[in-house]
Amino acid sequence: MKSIPLLLALVSAPALAQEFPQVFEHKFGTTTLETKPERILTLSYSGIDHYLALGVTPVGVREWYGGYPSGAWPWAQAALGDATIIQIPEEYTYEQIAALDPDVIEGLTAGLTAEQYAELSKIAPVVATEAQYGDFGTPWYVQTQTMGRIAGKEAEAKVLVDGINQRFEDIVAAHPEWQGMTAAVAFADTLPGAFRSDDIRAMTLSQLGFVTPPAIDAADSEYGFFIEFSPEDLSLLDTDLLVWVSGDDNSARIKALTLRTRLKAHLEGREVMADRMLAGAFSYASPLSIDYLLDRLVPEIELAVDGDPSTVVPSAAAEGIAP
């Protein structure tokens, strides 16, 4: 794994200056940035990580969860350094956006509506998601490359993405047995549920060779990137690998799913438990969180899918969900 200082050194290496104007096609039309913006405001939930990884400090970021200063989780704090970034509320007002006087408003994974796009465009040029990816399905590497173009760091973004993708390729090469295995990233909230293949968490597993079952994608959902279902039928979760994410470090809801203990994935020890920090890295899936994610997740997966039901998966055992 590359250290943060080395990572930043790689993307800070001299490169040919990126030319402007830059044109961005997105679901609401076309946005042109005539000159390199100095004051970037990101409404993408994980936008802070992508910009900090490129050595860019946004003028404002959207508050998400975690409660960390400037919105920087532990894996991003070295890249943040001594900087302080203003966090605007998740449910922001246009006045709060305008007060930061941005040169550009980026919203690749912000769930922008047409009305919001129109109102924000009165403040500054807005770069929204490409239609093909939906509101929250832009892959991490596309986010990094697009944000790199916005910030005038297209070449640096390519170096960053290539380096991380190489790590994925190395892991895939070392684990040919994972290719084509089914995997579900699941949660237990008011109802149990799972993320579709176009969610950033499922896409991360797909880069390792795992496949989201078509039945999860086909299930009815009002949410788009995830589904919920009855606790009386957990069959969609009976996959080769079952990764549970916990946003609050509490596995009580998962253990309360009584039918979970009948799943083959449970009985054969193929469950992995992502605690609050690992679940956060999974949800951010950024150039700064992916190394942390892979460092912790890959060894757990190796144990979970080794074909031996007696193998103990440490995260599952620690949270009391192991068979």
From TrEMBL:
UniProt cross-references to SUPFAM superfamilies, sorted A to Z: Helical backbone' metal receptor
Secretion signal span: 1-17
Keyword line: Ion transport, Iron, Iron transport, Signal, Transport
Residue ranges the record marks as coiled coil: none
Record field: transmembrane: none
Fe/B12 periplasmic-binding domain sequence ranges: 39-305
A single GO cellular-component term on record: outer membrane-bounded periplasmic space
Stored Pfam families: Peripla_BP_2
A GO biological process held by the record: iron coordination entity transport
PANTHER family, per the entry: FERRIC ENTEROBACTIN-BINDING PERIPLASMIC PROTEIN FEPB (PTHR30532:SF24), IRON III DICITRATE-BINDING PERIPLASMIC PROTEIN (PTHR30532)
Protein name: Fe/B12 periplasmic-binding domain-containing protein
Source organism per UniProt: Devosia epidermidihirudinis
